[in-house]
Specification:
Helix content: 25-40%
CATH class of the domain at 28-80: Mainly Alpha
CATH architecture of the domain at 28-80: Orthogonal Bundle
Strand order of the largest sheet: 3-5-4
Order of helices and strands: EEEHHEEH
Shape: globular
Radius of gyration: 21 Å
Number of strands: 5
Length: about 90
């Protein structure tokens, strides 16, 4: 975790309280969803090819969130390593 300094005035404008606040910094490689651009890089294809695969339903792990397209990292990684693609939890 990284730390960030937090300053705020306390009662008297001349007195400032100084505290250190813990801030969680996520490693970009630990996010469950990645951009289509990042997925294309991992697959070794162009971004436009990735969007064509997405439109054709051939991009593994593709999802839409708030109108934007993403790829589930664990599904993409499984595909890249020749492993069985994990099924969604609700598709039992």
């Amino acid at each position: 975790m990284a730390t960030a300094d937090v300053h705020r005035a306390v009662g008297n404008p001349g007195i400032v309280e100084h505290r250190t606040k813990e801030v969680l910094v996520l490693n970009p490689d630990s996010r469950p969803l990645i951009s289509v651009r990042r997925a294309a890089e991992r697959l070794g294809i162009t971004e436009s090819s990735a969007y064509r695969w997405l439109a054709a339903g051939e991009l593994p792990g593709a999802v839409r969130v708030n109108g934007r397209s993403y790829v589930r990292r664990r599904v993409l990684e499984a595909r890249l390593h020749g492993e069985e693609i994990p099924r969604p939890l609700d598709a039992a």
